[in-house]
Specification:
This protein is of the alpha/beta class. It has a single domain, classed as Rossmann fold. The protein contains 7 helices and 9 strands, in the order βαβββαββαβαβααβα. The strands form 2 sheets. The protein has a 5-stranded parallel β-sheet with strand order 2-7-1-8-9, with helices on both faces. β5 and β6 form a beta hairpin. α1 packs across α7 and α5 runs antiparallel to α6. It is globular. The two termini are about 15 Å apart. About 30% of the residues are buried. The model has no long low-confidence stretch (mean pLDDT about 90).
Length: about 190
Amino acid sequence: MTSGRLIVLSGPSGAGKSTIVAELLNRCPLPLVLSVSLTTRPPRPGETDGVHYHFVTLDMFQKHRENGDFLEHCEVFGRGVWYGTLREPVTSGLNQGKWIILEIDVEGARQVVREFPEAITLFVHPENLVELERRLRARNTEAEAAIARRLDVARAELSAAGWYKHHVVNRDLNACVNSICDILLSYREP
């Protein structure tokens, strides 16, 4: 059995990453599996533990940190909310020949690439910040201060995105998913 591939997909909040990943899992003919991250934040309406995230207490998250269980982890938006990817499910999936998708931020991606320099790195973004702001506001899920904070983080992520191997603009969902699937297929062993 050939070992799997590690895929790191990043992009600013509002770029459509979760929708893209869901479509890739349904349409791309590779053994793709989404890694489910841990978070200390409470579930949002419609989120299911173990599907969208593993929702854990801060104490549990800290125990995983102390044990060195994380492939990557970070505090997001400076609000005391932590996210992280456990190493064991990723390495075990890769050993089973699966292509593991990590949907993580730029900081987490850098941590992963230090350990897995062969990871396929993809950065997804909208055409411009105006479109990104429109998408964030269209969600109608956050206060003005939260949108402003997400836009500040997006600017920083966009300026740091140059080291990703692949950049894909999400103007049209189908075209974007097809483009990413084609990129991934190009890494398939003959």
